[in-house]
Design a protein that fits this description.
Structural class of chain B: mainly alpha
Largest sheet of chain A: 2 strands, antiparallel
Number of domains of chain B: 1
Number of helices of chain B: 14
Order of helices and strands of chain B: HHHHHHEHHHHEHHHH
Helix content of chain B: over 70%
Distance between the termini of chain B: 9 Å
Structural class of chain A: mainly alpha
Radius of gyration of chain B: 19 Å
Distance between the termini of chain A: 42 Å
Largest sheet of chain B: 2 strands, antiparallel
Strand order of the largest sheet of chain A: 1-2
Shape of chain A: globular
Number of helices of chain A: 12
Number of domains of chain A: 1
Shape of chain B: globular
Number of strands of chain B: 2
Largest interface: A-B, 48 and 49 residues
Order of helices and strands of chain A: HHHHEEHHHHHHHH
Oligomer: heterodimer
CATH topology of chain A: ABC transporter involved in vitamin B12 uptake, BtuC
CATH architecture of chain A: Orthogonal Bundle
Radius of gyration of chain A: 20 Å
Number of strands of chain A: 2
Strand order of the largest sheet of chain B: 1-2
Helix content of chain A: over 70%
Strand content of chain A: under 5%
């Protein structure tokens, strides 16, 4: 039982780190630009497809990753320039419609380019295999590598947001856009930087997870909604909130699926516990969101009510 | 925001009669469609028409909160699902009556809407959109793992519903005209709601919640009631949809469906009830047409959406200003 708990906790942290990479960009885009972007999950999917293509072409995961990142910058800049830039001044309804259109375009375009059958990405050689954790328990090295890489990016973001000039502008922009603009900051350039940064982080998350998932067209969708939950729980515009929210959501989601039925068994008979557990487990994160919002409508670290 | 939107509101009287006229024209066209389809020897159109009617009901219900209350709910497909599953669940207990199924669907939806609406309405703007989306997904996942009714695969319905023991829905034509009657009745209901004191307060909250609060109304209560009504009407659309497809699955509740409902409302014109009915017709016909042209119809539909938002001067809402009411930002 203890082993299972540790294992699932690590899985939860790994998912949380990925969710954070995606949510960080999304929360900045929401917070600073006040734009709702339904197409953010698409970027995660595109990252996975890009690395699948590049890794297959070069025969190496590392070259694939190295090529995916600049490609992600291009994807981010293009989407920002062609679509997002025109949406900043629009109503949320227009933003919802246009980015919903982007989701449809991207999903279908990916199907046309890469086909409908899932792709796989080879695991990098040095990270294959498992390490012993405690007793007979082993854990895949690659998942640990994801956790470390994600935490490193989180640390980098933290330093950037809190100790650099760009970070200062980001924080100022999230608090009051108009004032930042009035102080002579080129707000359009700032928006482009923020959106592209978010796009690169989402693509990176997709690229990192590609070796342990099958890469298919649906992968952006499930993650998008979870990321929304993370952003809402953490508070829009807050990187710190996104980090804690991502870990919270991922751990609740992972542990709830495994331990929910086990806990229910102590109050219900086994078959009923299994049934109820299966139905409740996928709903847990939403219930968590509801509870947190009920207490704090602006999320854990939200500024505006 | 306050002065801009307030000045952009049209006086209600002329809009009202225009709305009813437009709706009457639509209803007459709907009524004439089946004879035309059978004259063309293509009765398949009647089933497509029923689907359009169902989505027209749902889009109109969404407009009630989106257009009149400025609440962009991105989880309305959940109520379609509640309606559809109400049919499946009651049928598995041998209850086939349409009226009982509608009552059951409305009851489930009302409970869900009260709880999720009360939480969602504590927030606004982007938060509200994301939270309603998340609650919609919650319902979606509930039915995905609800193995008693097929889970992910859904469940086929043994038969269509009956009305007070009569097999009115037995033929495709019967189903079509009963659906049309439901649409007309629900339009009349929504029309009454919008024109009532309640509707005025709701529109007032959309324009300026602070002022409405200052003259003694609680915005939260009015918005919540509107949210619940809208959800319940959408559930009736779900009951129709289940009978049309004779099949129920979580696919009715996916967030893409919620998105499509918003597309219908905006396509037809926000905030005038008749517009979304036309929007449902336009969106579904466009879908059928693109689908016949190419297997990648979603690509073209997506491009259409993006272009429409980007290149109409003030968004689609602005383009359709003459048809309805302009919504403010936020």
């Amino acid at each position: 039982m203890m082993n299972l708990f540790v294992l699932q906790l690590l899985n939860g942290v790994q998912l949380g780190v990925l969710l954070f990479l995606i949510a960080a960009g999304l929360t900045l885009v929401f917070g600073i630009m006040d734009v709702i972007n339904l197409a953010h999950g698409v970027l995660y999917m595109v990252g996975a497809y890009l690395i699948a293509t590049f890794a297959a072409a070069t025969g190496s995961f590392w070259w694939g990753l190295l090529l995916t990142l600049p490609a992600a910058v291009v994807v981010g800049l293009v989407i920002e320039f062609v679509v997002m830039r025109r949406l900043y001044a629009r109503s949320h309804l227009d933003q919802v419609l246009a980015t919903f259109g982007l989701v449809m375009i991207a999903n279908e375009a990916v199907k046309m380019i890469w086909g409908t059958s899932p792709l796989s990405v080879p695991m990098p050689e040095i990270f294959s295999g498992s390490v012993p954790l405690m007793g007979p328990l082993k854990y895949p090295v690659y998942r640990i590598a994801i956790i470390v890489a994600g935490l490193a990016v989180a640390l980098g973001l933290f330093i950037m947001v809190n100790y650099t000039r760009v970070g200062m502008l980001l924080r100022a922009g999230a608090t009051n856009r108009d004032t930042v603009s009035a102080l002579g900051v080129d707000i359009n350039r700032l928006f482009a930087i923020v959106f592209t940064l978010g796009a690169v982080l989402a693509c990176l998350a997709g690229a990192l997870v590609a070796p342990i998932l099958s890469v298919d067209t649906g992968m952006g969708e499930s993650v998008l909604i979870l990321t929304f939950v993370v952003v809402v729980i953490g508070g829009i515009g807050s990187i710190k909130g996104a980090f804690l929210g991502a870990l919270l959501v991922a751990i609740v989601d992972t542990l709830g699926g495994v331990f929910g039925p086990i806990l229910l068994r102590s109050v219900l008979d086994p078959s009923a516990a299994g049934q109820v557990g299966r139905v409740l487990a996928p709903m847990l994160v939403y219930i968590l969101m509801a509870v947190i919002l009920f207490a704090k409508p602006a999320g854990l670290f939200g500024r505006r009510a | 925001m306050t002065y801009m939107t307030a000045s952009a509101t049209h006086p209600d009287r002329p809009v009202l009669s225009g709305r009813v006229k437009a709706a009457l024209v639509l209803f007459i066209l709907f009524a004439l469609m089946p004879p035309l389809a059978s004259a063309l020897n293509d009765p398949f159109y009647v089933l497509i028409g029923t689907r359009i009617l169902a989505y027209a009901i749902a889009a109109m219900a969404l407009d009630l909160i989106l257009g009149y209350g400025a609440m962009v709910s991105f989880g309305h497909a959940a109520y379609l699902g509640f309606g559809a599953y109400a049919v499946a669940i009651l049928q598995s207990y041998g209850v086939n009556d349409l009226i009982l199924q509608i009552l059951f669907a409305v009851a489930i939806s009302a409970i869900f809407a009260v709880v999720t609406g009360a939480i969602s309405l504590r927030t606004r703007g982007v938060y509200f959109i994301m939270i309603t989306l998340a609650f919609g997904q919650m319902a979606f996942f509930f039915f995905i793992s609800f193995s008693a009714y097929g889970g992910d695969d859904g469940v086929a319905l043994a038969q269509r519903s009956t009305v007070l023991g009569m097999d009115l829905l037995g033929t495709d034509y019967g189903l079509y005209y009963v659906s049309l009657a439901l649409l007309i009745a629900l339009f009349a209901l929504c029309h009454r709601i919008v024109g009532s004191r309640f509707g005025r307060v709701l529109t007032g909250i959309r324009e300026n919640p602070t002022r409405i609060e200052a003259i003694g109304f609680s915005p939260f209560r009015y918005q919540l009631i509107a949210f619940v009504i809208s959800g319940c009407i959408t559930a009736i659309a779900g009951v129709v949809l289940a009978n049309q497809a004779q099949f129920v699955s979580p696919a009715f509740m996916s967030w893409h469906k919620s998105g499509e409902l918003i597309v219908m409302v905006v396509l037809g014109g926000v905030g005038n009830l008749a517009g979304p009915i036309a929007g449902a017709v336009a969106a579904l016909l466009l879908e059928e047409w693109l689908d016949a042209l190419s297997e990648h119809w979603k690509l073209y539909f997506g491009i259409f959406l993006v272009l429409m938002v980007l290149f109409s001067p003030h968004g689609i809402t602005g383009l359709l200003k003459k048809m309805g009411i302009v919504r403010g930002q936020q």
